[in-house]
Amino acid sequence: MLKIVGTLILLLIVVLALAITIVPRFLDRIYYRGPATDHFDGARFRNPDGDADTIGVPSGGSRIGFFWRFFTGTDGRPKWPENVATPSAVPAARIEGERMVVTWVGHATVLVQTQGLNILTDPVWSDRAGPLGFGPKRVTAPGIAFDALPRIDVVLLSHDHYDHMDLATIGRLWRRDRPHIVTSLGNDSVIAKTGAQATAVDWGQRVPIRPGIDVIVTRAHHWGTRWNTDRNRALWSGFVVTMPQGGNVFFAGDTGMGDGRWPAEAAAYGPIRFAMIPIGAFRFVPGQMAIGSHIGPVDAVTVYHDLGAAHAMAIHWGTFRLSYEAYDTPPKLLAAAMACTGQTGFVAEPIGRPIEIAPYAKPAPVPAMSRDALLRCLDTPTVKAMQ
What we know:
Blueprint: H1 2-21, H2 63-72, E1 100-106, E2 109-114, E3 117-121, E4 154-157, H3 167-177, E5 180-184, H4 187-191, E6 198-201, E7 206-210, E8 213-218, E9 238-241, E10 248-251, H5 262-267, E11 272-278, H6 297-307, E12 311-315, H7 329-341, E13 346-347, E14 355-357, H8 371-378, H9 381-386
Helix pairs in contact: 1-2, 6-7
């Protein structure tokens, strides 16, 4: 009996997922109106380096089959833990001057404290990442309890996917702190549903925060949607935060590799002291090392190299189960890839532990390694075992 009930519930979930996929046009929304550009056709945004790798099902095959295997657990995914214990930090109210302290809250949410500013990236405190209470459930509690957050001055919001744009959290932050929310074109329309106000600008544009500190919205290779029919109505982005001393901050948001030029574009705004780079949700079939809209550790170490960053934190892994890699594959593979390239300074830090970031110092020069050469270096029994 229980098996029948469980099957019916799963079928209901699949029907709901399919309904979202073929949802009527009345759920479409116009989030932005403006002139056409190389990445906006007057109605929807696009990647100027091509969208072929961000369209369709990540694993190939049919969307119906993908959702069925996902919700029935028949897709061969490695088992994840249901809960992972993490410490809960109590940050300082402010960190003044050149000193910088960063705390990974989970997924793409990071608290960056420096220059007397509290900067929060893609804030998500909800238990699930999805519409109507559905979606992946977090396996780790936030590394900072919401009530322990210091007053937030700036929020960087990369795009409108549920695991990055959590309207419940944005509403709470707005009511409490009235932070300056900076995002890319169109996302302000979605954020406005919470009553919050956001500054939305195009790639390459600056938003002044205070003298010497600007937020620059930068190019990423991704896509956006809340209901599928509104696909790419709002733009996706990364961010550079310029600092008066000590080096800049870079937040990649959510991105695939694309043409691979966007890291150098971000680095052109000045030396990067600290970068937040995604390493998870990259595997939807066995052995996969990246998908079109997500980089994995193999490409993340190349991004780190091309940024010329002094320090980097691995994000977008180990909080929500979004793909098919094992829970601890991303950090293990990152460590192996870093060893292959001979780089240092890019690690998978634990959730909820404040990390002191030294001022920028130019990294020791390391030759660039081709992707093929890196994959050959990783082609060992030890690395294969972790995949």
